[in-house]
From TrEMBL:
Residues 1-197 form the Calcineurin-like phosphoesterase domain. Pfam families: Metallophos. One of its GO terms (molecular function) is hydrolase activity. This is Calcineurin-like phosphoesterase domain-containing protein.
């Protein structure tokens, strides 16, 4: 049993959103993802899918893409990305009847003795896309992450956080408030996505203040789910 991570699948059953604007490596990216997934993921493994899952706008449209993932090997945990406009309430998501997918929303998931927490996150204050309206969203996402982590029972071995946005400042790549919150709750690992093409230069990985960080954007990991934790029993 092992834990893997991947983000930014950007599935598009309608064929309206080609991703090769970020590079030729995105051509036939869905086929690459599914082939790699089937080759390395076992039925007992857990896959953390950190947002931007489907380009669909409505939940009924996203179901086509979600069903494809549901039929792949392994148990999957989803968080929302900035392009997952189809994402609904937890009740609506459960009504889809997906057998191998769980959605994190102000809560957590226990795998063996490992707790999986998460939220979407948001752009850093010093990014060019941040404006005064974003402050409320940023603070709300911090509260959602704290609610997720706080839902974990005390008898877990370790805690992993999933974010969609990188938890680092834009200019100097320094840890931002999301990392401060993770330190407060003794998080051991964090995975995140969102970065594509030229954006890879903003990726931060490795151990920082005792937390192990992984960027798992599809094109950053060559469309191959990345092992985050191995040989769990």
């Amino acid at each position: 049993m092992a834990i893997y991570g991947i983000a930014d699948l950007h599935l598009d059953s309608a064929g309206d959103k080609p991703m090769d604007i970020f590079g030729h490596n995105w051509i036939n990216h869905q086929e690459k993802i599914f082939s790699n997934w089937q080759n390395i993921i076992g039925e007992e493994d857990l896959v953390l899918v950190a947002g931007d899952i489907s380009w669909a706008l409505k939940l009924s449209e996203a179901y086509i893409d979600l069903k494809k993932i549901d039929e792949l090997p392994g148990k999957k945990i989803f968080i929302r990305g900035n392009h997952d406009y189809w994402w609904g309430t937890k009740a609506k998501l459960k009504e889809l009847g997906l057998k191998t997918i769980d959605f994190i929303h102000n809560d957590s998931f226990l795998y063996q003795s490992i707790a999986i927490c998460g939220t979407r996150g948001w752009a850093s204050h010093d990014s060019g896309e941040f404006d005064p309206h974003d402050e409320k969203i940023f603070e709300r996402e911090l509260r959602r992450l704290e609610a997720s982590i706080s839902s974990v029972r005390d008898n877990t071995l370790e805690k992993i956080v999933m974010l969609h946005y990188p938890p680092f400042n834009f200019e100097n790549k320094a840890p931002n408030e999301f990392v401060e919150l993770m330190l407060k709750y003794n998080i051991s690992k964090c995975v995140y996505g969102h970065l594509h093409g030229e954006g890879h230069k903003f990726a931060v990985e490795g151990y920082i203040e005792g937390i192990e960080f992984h960027c798992i954007s599809c094109d950053f990991i060559d469309f191959m789910p990345k092992k985050i934790w191995g040989n769990l029993r």
